[in-house]
Amino acid sequence: MTPRLPCPRPARVVLEGRYARLEPLSLAHTEGLMAASADAASFDYLFDVPPRDRDDLRAWIEQKSASADPLFQVVVDKATGIADGRQTFMRIVPEHGVIEIGNILWGPAIARTRVATEALYLAAKYVFDELGYRRFEWKCNDLNEPSKRAARRFGFAFEGVFRQHMWSKGANRDTAWFAMLDRDWPRLRAAYERWLAPSNFDAAGRQREKLQAAAPRQ
Q1: How far apart are CA 26 and CA 92, in angstroms?
Q2: Cβ(9)–Cβ(32) below 8 Å
Q3: In Å, how far are 111, 194, 210 from 213, measured between CA atoms?
């Protein structure tokens, strides 16, 4: 099917899931994001640095909440009501129907949980089902093995490494590229929805079956 281009730009909307909610970044999220930023190592591959204190974080939030690209969202754990992470839509190219998810910081309370997985699912569902984009990208430092494993688990196909793609924090950065396409999404959406079903989790919230959203071989 021929896409309708240009696609709409993502808006500052609230996206509701069963376990997670995505909200536009605001100062109301300061306390949650401060706790999510406690591990300085989680910033090793991000473009920004850990906040020194709450005033530093508030200044960062005021700056980033005004940005349209990247467009920052926070990840709220619906069980606690706390903003335990953040992510963005970025490098948005409506005329080609291409958009990237990035600046991901899922704090220790939600990392590797169904909250983080649903946050990714909500973003992808919005991109493909509501905005009609053709391509959803995930890029990361090629040294960032956890990020590359996450991309594959979420169903992004590995496309290669761009050598010396960026200069980041005083060093060359080789960038690993991953993407999922609109034609992949119906299969991936079904896999996410099976995995996110309440029946897939025990009373302690542990998964019964792994997410089977691996990207097709290229």
Answers
A1: 21
A2: no
A3: 18, 10, 9
- pLDDT (0 to 100) of residue 24: 98
Cα-based distances in Å from 157 to 6, 115, 178: 24, 22, 5
Query: CA-to-CA distance for 13 and 72, rounded, in angstroms?
Result: 11
Which pLDDT does position 2 carry in this prediction? 79
Integer Rg of the chain from CA? 17
Superfamily holding 15-199: Gcn5-related N-acetyltransferase (GNAT) (3.40.630.30)
What pLDDT band is residue 1 in, cutting at 50, 70 and 90?
low
**pLDDT score for 141:** 97
Range in 71-75, 194-198, 211-215 with the lowest mean pLDDT: 211-215
H/E stretch holding 87 reads strand 82-93
Per-domain boundaries in the chain: 15-199
Q: pTM of the predicted model, to two decimals?
A: 0.95
Cis before residue 8, ω within 30 degrees of 0? no
Per-residue pLDDT, averaged over 37-54, amounts to 95
Write down the residue that tokens 């376990």 correspond to. 19
User: What is the C-alpha to C-alpha distance for residues 146 and 140, in angstroms, rounded to an integer?
Assistant: 10
Nearest to 81 by CA among 21, 37, 38: 21
Residue 166: is it exposed, middle or buried by C-beta count within 10 angstroms (0-12/13-18/19+)? middle
